[in-house]
Predict the structure.
Amino acid sequence: MNPTDPQVFTQLWAGGWYRFAARMRSPNFGLRPPGTLPDLIVLHCISLPPGHYGGDAVQRLFANQLDWNEHPYFKSIEPARVSAHFYIRRHGELLQFVSSDDRAWHAGVSSYGGRDNCNDYSIGIELEGLVGEHFECAQYETLAGLCSAITQQYPIKHIVGHEHIAADRKSDPGAGFSWTGLQRALGLPSGCFPAGESLLAHAPATPHP
């Protein structure tokens, strides 16, 4: 079976849910505007508390089950009601919280290419990590496979970071993320990425398979 055959990729999806992601439904989502298909992928990074890896706080945040009194940092984000479509853990495990056909709550006040409200037309992917730090090879491997499947299923035109759609508020995934590695893995032209060749030329040389 040819993995590039569109029929194969269709079998990877059911109602916007990706076959190779563990499903953990979030109540924080809505419908996309009528006739809107996602054409933008937005990459984020998250860890709760910041810099702490391996727990389940992110999953509980997206499920509205986080105890705000559990850690002092959690009080600073109370009462957040957020979600992303996907979450990639440090060892590469992939979780999905919202159907990609639906609108997740990951971008906030945002704009890209002259269009506001990026949540309406984007798919949000969270990487377990911290702004300014590097990400694991296993995460890049999972991300590349996921982005490849998404671009086969949806009319994706651009892959950007949260920092590129809300620069006045956000800086993730940050300087530790290897845009060159992702572009190399996906084989997409530099115009699909923020700032095209200029950004990719100055991206850090994070190891990438």
About this structure: The chain is about 25% helix and 20% strand. The chain has one domain: 6-201. The first helix runs from residue 6 to 10.
